[in-house]
Amino acid sequence: MVPLRNLRRPAPPLARPVRPENPGRRRTGPAGPRRHGDRSRLERQRRPGAPAIADALREAHARGARLLSICSGVFVLAATGLLDGRRATTHWRYIETLRERYPRIRIDANALYVDEGHLLTSAGSAAGLDLCLHLVRRDWGPRIANHVARRLVIAPHREGGQAQYIERPVQRSERGALAPLLDDMRRRLAEPLTIAELARIAAMSERSFMRHFKQATGATPADWLIQARVERARELLETTPASIDRIAGETGFGSAITMRHHFRRKLGVSPRDYRQRFARERG
Question: What's the predicted TM-score (pTM) here?
Answer without folding.
Answer: 0.50
